[in-house]
Amino acid sequence: MINNKIISIVLSTFLWVTVSSPQSLNAQGEEGLQLQDFSYWANLCASQKEARNYEQALEACDQAIALNPNEPQAWIDRGDIQRALNNYAEAAASYGQVIRLEPRHSEAWAKRCAANIQLTNYEAAITDCETALQIDETWNQVTRAYALYHQGLALWGQARREKALFSFDLAVQSNPDYSLAWAQRCLLLSQFDQTYDALNSCERALQVNGDWGNRTPAIAWTNRGKILAQLRRYDAALESYDQALAIDPKDATAWTEQGKVLLIIGQPGEALTSQEWALKIRPDYALALANQCATLNQLSQYEDALAACDQAIQEGDGRWGEEGAAYAWSHRADALTGNGRFQEALASANRAVALNPDYADPWSSRGATLWFMGRFEEALGATGQAITINPNSSKAWFNYARILTTLGQYNEAHAAYQRALLGDANVGNILTLAEIWVNLSGLDFRLQRYQEAITAAERAIGINPDSAAAWYNRGLSLMALNQYRNAVETYDRAIAIDAENADFWAGKGIALRFLEQYPQALEALQTALELNPSHPQALVNQEFVMQKLQTPNGMEALPNSGVSKAISFKTQPIKPKKPGSYPGF
CB neighbours (10 Å) of residue 357? Predict the structure, then answer.
């Protein structure tokens, strides 16, 4: 006997579905005669559904139902077709018609559970799946494992992760060949930090290669990539995403996760391409838009980054990563800081912190914004909170070091830079790691550790040979060690990267002055003054060089013109390019 709970669910969830009359469709048959044969239309519906001709299948189903509205299988097929067309409310209503006709039809309960999940009606979905399992009759095209799997998805949607995992475990116990359940179990396990168990679950899904439901093995490859990225096995993660996209080039999740990894390993241009592919497939994909925002920030394209973050927040489909919407608000804060809109940036960082106070990046972004605003003690506190949450965050340690340097606490700043180098930026050939080394070289110069400064600059150059800041810092330290010829060559490398930087030309001119190559020195110093007419070191040294060129026998023209005065300009070669990142000090 059906209990009263089931009967009440049937009555409370019952919906009538309007279908087309027989006359609303063109008849298919000899000489165009209208067919009034239910079996013909029902069979056509089923065969067109199997062929994935969903529009034609839906017309045939509606024709069959118009002839006989009391046949459950026609309603089941209609529900399946509506789900394939992403019409989940219509699908749920169709399955409800089956339940009205046959209240003990477990397949209909389980499939309505699946439709309700897509509608984010998680409580109703859980009830439907539980009912299907309690009745345990008339499964037809699905099994108990199907209901257990979808029950797990609904529980996951309610953030009841432990119960969701239990449901997935029961699903794969019931059907060990249920590849889709293994693949989703893999992703859920990763949220418990059980990364190796998660990886094994994804491998099992691919090895079994059994029941994928309405998905493909691409989902397992994509989830496997996410786990490998968590393990910082980035090359292997990219290979997994490539496998996923080879199977399903329209997998927007695989594209955006691939882009996320490419950004981590310092390939922002390629990352942006991946995000663009994701957005071609799903233009309102919130996570892809937020990732695009993060990538554009890395490329210092702050206006475009802000637009992408705003679109993610205002028009996105709500599909976020583990950090939720705080991820977009945090990167929005970075974009606003990059644009010099500090008050708005602080408001965005505060919003991100409120949404996810256990997420380190918004705290770090907040600290960077406060630093730009000159609120150094508050900046230090916010960045310290980021470090408390994630002691391995290179970004947080880097910002902490910058603030300490501003406060003149050089030894503490030096220790913080060392921690930044040991953190999560130490992944290989990535630009952010190079910028940490640039800043450390600048601090070593301040501490008069010139050889260490050269070594740090060279480490940055080894990672990013196009870092003008690294070449400039190397040149400064070489001059401090009286290695002027090497300094000239180093400044030339910086100028080749950025010929519009007056500091680079001034540095070269001063080095040439000490080599007593006065005509070449004057040319370099004049170029510096064309770029910055008030450049103090260029002005002083130009006067010295001009008098040298006018004085017979090279007699000294200016007293006290040694290197200590000639190279008194700043050790930070470039303005901070992006908040929370790695500009040179």
Answer: 12
